[in-house]
Amino acid sequence: MDKRFDDKARRNHAAFSRRIDDQAKRKLKARRHATRTIWHGLGMMGLVGWSVAIPTVLGIALGIWIDRHFPGRHSWTLMLLLLGLVLGCLNAWHWVAKEEKKIRQDEEDNDD
Length: 112
Hints:
Elements: H1 2-32, H2 38-69, H3 76-111
Helix pairs in contact: 2-3
């Protein structure tokens, strides 16, 4: 009877230790990622939006200026709008890829 009680106590102790260890790991992970809040996500969305909007608007402004001062058959406004949009999308892709790389590297460091 004593031996069964000891085995049961050991199993309970091991299960309790695993639960405590899991909780501690979750808390440590949450502390490491404390900067990744909803505001961080909204900030990244803003960064991506502005990185597309600014080159597009600059392309439009330059195109309008060229069309007014040097009129021609083709619309510089439309061409530079498209160029600004493409450059902005490439810029946004760069920022997102950089952030994703940082997140993956943090996860790999935490797994070790």
